[in-house]
Amino acid sequence: MVSGGxxxxxxxxxxxxxxxxxxxxxxxGTRGQVARLILELGPSTAATLGGRxxxxxxxxxxxxxxxxxxxxxxxxxxxxxxxxGRGRPAKLFVITDAGRSAFEHAYDDLATSALRFIAQxxxxxxxxxxxxxxxxxxxxxxxxxxxxxxxxxxxVQALAEALSADGYAASAGPAPAVSTVQTGVxxxxxxxxxxxxxxxxxxxxxxxxxxxxxxxxxxxLGTPVQRLATIAHGxxxxxxxxxxxxxxxxxxxxxxxxTNESSPEGSDI
Length: 269
Prior knowledge:
The protein is an alpha+beta fold. The chain contains nine helices and ten strands. The chain has helices at 23-41, 46-53, 57-70, 97-122, 124-147, 152-165, 200-203, 208-221, 246-262; strands spanning 2-3, 6-7, 73-77, 91-95, 170-174, 178-179, 186-187, 190-194, 225-229, 238-242. The chain is elongated and about 65 Å long.
């Protein structure tokens, strides 16, 4: 298939979504099963793969050779235990980055088709409800992690770490200062940056996924948030601005006033 203007291996081979006919369907379909099994099992020998799929040694070798030629998999040499006798080390077959990407894009296409069906049969609101339902599990897992932090900065950092653990490559820190028209005072807040988005291909067509995630961030952090940029819309990073609440700002002003009043300069004595 073609994604973002670049052809991926899935566009040239019969993995999910390919259009081939005749005996090629069976041949390439089995080849796709071999690649998927390697993706699921990790580094595997030809004997293991052939046994799981019920293929003869000659057949599994043929499929593996074709997958290597297509750039979907590569070989590695298994580490030999110290107590193992002399002989040829076992050859392991592992999925490549291109192979993994091919399956990810295939899943994206399936998800996009499913959401299109929901939108056509039940309307955009149904897509939004689906997105909220999907994000609810993420919110449930993150809630106890974020709740352990008392101040806003620590909660934002905890959220970023939880996102990174799920593959979003997130970071957190103070947001760039922005001057307000009313006061002329810069209000910083915090900022969450996600350098990877597993659903960017789908979210490009269905922004409800990004919107549901942003809503969940606001509930988790207990403060208003605003999505400033998304990978799905062509930005390099998903950036979320976290607003310092009025309550937090009042507490900070109160602390400053209290400090000034208790200092010699602020005392009437």
